[in-house]
Amino acid sequence: MKLTIKAGTILLASALCAQASAQTIKVGVVLSMSGPNATLGETMDRAIKLYMKLHQLPPGVKVEIITRDDGGPNPDKAKQLSQELIVRDKIQFLTGMIFTPNAMASAPLSTEAKVPMVIMNAGTSAITTMSPYIVRLSFTLWQSSLPMGTWAGKKYKTAYIATSDYGPGHDAEAAFTKGFTDAGGKIVGNVRMPLANPDFVPFMQRVKDSKPDVVFAFVPAGKQATAIMKAYGELGLDKAGIKFIGPGDITPDDELANMGDEALGVLTMFHYSAAANRPANKAFVAAWQKEYGASAVPNFLSVGAWDSMDAIYHAIREQNGKIDPDKSMDLLKRYKNPNSPRGPISVDPETRDIVQNEYLREVRKVGGKLENVELETLETAVKDPWKIINNKK
Ligand code: PHB
Description:
- By secondary structure, the chain is α/β, with parallel strands linked by helices.
- Helix content is 42%, strand content 24%.
- The N and C termini lie far apart (62 Å).
- The structure holds P-hydroxybenzoic acid.
- P-hydroxybenzoic acid is lined by residues 98-100, 122-124, 168, 220-221, 249.
């Protein structure tokens, strides 16, 4: 009897010891890995893997990534996956979240369970107001589309707006309208296009018929961006003298090769281009191509995932692997990196939203390849304008 107790005690003691020497932090990642938006999830998955390969944690601290596929903009599915990750897998961080509806559906869970949720992509401004446990490392559509409107309003007289009919599209539309009209421009038409399986040709025909100086568009990056670019080219809007402009979502770096020369001359405002000359970006792209091949190109979703992992690693490192959700939030909302591939970034502790530069870019051919060439840094350290205008935290 005595012996049995001793053996049990020893077993328990050694189990506790093993736990102390090997902390495993579980990170749940909800991404779109299948269906028409699969390329978005895949590039982020690649970024997560590469980040982990190239970065260290304190001795004995490990990160276990648990990735789940939401299949695209599916709020119910995303919520179910987030719930399973929180309840069954007992994750300490929830991340990923490409599509706004998915992030919004998961937001209440992060509040209830006190699990920090690091948004790697979803860009509707209001998302961060939906839980005190949300921090965003990606962008907002207001950050890009307001300065795009202001810039374009000084150069062009009339604009037509075409956006996907959901959160980020509505934000892009409102932000561009404000910037463009405040600068003296006139909006001559506006159309909201379906998010699921859109055929862009009829919409681009309407734009062509109304003969604006510019068409400002937002669609989610990936295959939709290539499809709207093709419709713009095939209907000859460029030859009709209608300039194509938008947030950088419409010219994702890795889709430019699929778009072809129709994309030449398209002007966008954005926080990241794979063609940027910053040393941190050169190093990032070189590491990417070493890992994934010389023709592989990362995009803003890759960088959103990369920087989110850096913020999560920072929170883990600072707590030496012993994770407390409120301490994690405190560290995440004060996160700063002067040297991200996109330039200096930080999180605004008041809003838990990303602060970053906005660059004006033009699609040009460089060495035979299409690139988003950064023309100028239009604004530095841009906070989400929607929160400033509407006094939201
Ligand atoms: C979003 O759903 O918030 C979203 C998706 C794709 C983008 C931008 C925003 O390119």
